[in-house]
Design a protein that fits this description.
- It is a single chain.
- By secondary structure, this protein is of the alpha+beta class.
- Helices cover 38% and strands 30% of the residues.
- It is globular, with a radius of gyration of 20 Å.
């Protein structure tokens, strides 16, 4: 795939949209020094060229009553069986997110469940029929994920963190809340008037519901999904094993990730490892240089690193199932 060349105006627009994709064109135009019409045209072109895939509300499952578990699999070299397994995963209504990768693991996916017992039953049922291709299996529980804005557009070093998962909460929702979330999850830039018509309510009511869900941290931000390959980037995950980690060490790691221009996510897990750092980079060589720099910066903290390059990733059926809601306390 040929790399698309983005000029500085495109990059400024993408950077601002990833910080808040609901930003009005009038304000965005002032920030990038162009007219409203020029900004609107640029955004339409970025969509048509496939750079912007979606405008998404970042929704926190933990604030809707869900625990998140992650499964890491090493698979046998049985190409046909692997493809059948991947297709079954893609259709499974319990799976929230899935990635196919090269490196330490061949497949990673996340499952949402309201209880440990529920997850135990779901994962055993799912994997029992595929034991013949599963060489290695590791299961972890996500503690929390710090997501950073896409600083690589402008080489920025002042990351805006958003926390997903974290403290569990049984927030009360109703069908209108879930309709609003369902629309914003895939079309976060929709005008308020159209959103209100779509969910069958008034603008004032919808604005009030959105504000309340932001205050409860059900909605933690509004971002863009970008096709990294279109702009010459790849998605790498570093699995990090710590020697030890003091409170000050962790603060330093958070700050290192916050200001790094290529960082995407800092994931804390209860797993055989302690953390996962994710980056958008131009090549394996650049990723390797970043990790070597991390090792040198924190020699008393970092014990070992493994890596994955994500070949495919997607939100799965459980994401949509979560947003259907039941009009009850969840």
């Amino acid at each position: 795939m040929d790399k698309l060349i983005l000029d500085i105006t495109d990059r400024k627009i993408l950077s601002e949209l990833d910080k808040n994709c609901r930003i009005p064109n009038s304000i965005l135009a002032k920030k990038v020094g162009k007219s409203r019409e020029a900004v609107k045209y640029r955004i339409e072109q970025l969509i048509q060229r496939g750079v912007i895939e979606k405008f998404q509300a970042a929704i926190n499952p933990s604030k809707l009553g869900y625990l998140m578990f992650k499964v890491y699999l090493k698979l046998d070299n049985l190409p046909d069986e692997r493809e059948k397994f991947f297709e079954e995963l893609k259709a499974d209504k319990n799976i929230y997110w899935m990635g196919i990768s090269d490196g330490a693991y061949d497949c990673v996916f996340a499952i949402l469940s309201r209880s440990v017992h529920g997850f135990y039953e779901e994962i055993n049922f799912l994997l029992s029929k595929w034991q013949h291709i599963i060489v290695g299996k590791y299961i972890g529980t996500m503690v929390d994920t710090t997501a950073y804005n896409k600083k690589f557009f402008l080489g920025e070093k002042d990351g805006v963190p958003r926390i997903v998962a974290g403290h569990f909460a049984n927030n009360e929702t109703d069908p209108l809340d879930m309709k609003i979330l369902s629309v914003l999850a895939n079309d976060a830039r929709i005008p308020m008037a159209r959103l209100s018509r779509k969910v069958g309510s008034t603008i004032e009511t919808v604005m009030g519901r959105i504000k309340k869900m932001e205050e409860k941290e059900i909605i933690v931000g509004y971002r863009i999904a970008v096709d990294l390959n279109k702009i010459g980037l790849e998605f790498f995950k570093a699995i990090i094993y710590f020697k030890s980690l003091s409170e000050q060490d962790e603060k330093s790691l958070y700050e290192w990730m916050r200001v790094h221009p290529n960082s995407l996510y800092y994931i804390r897990s209860l797993a055989p490892w302690e953390a996962e750092f994710e980056f958008a980079v131009e090549s394996y060589q650049q990723f390797n240089s970043i990790i070597n720099g991390l090792r040198m910066k924190f020699p008393k903290v970092i014990r070992n690193c493994e890596h994955l390059i994500m070949i495919y990733e997607s939100w799965m059926p459980a994401y949509a199932e979560m947003l259907k809601g039941k009009g009850q306390k969840v």
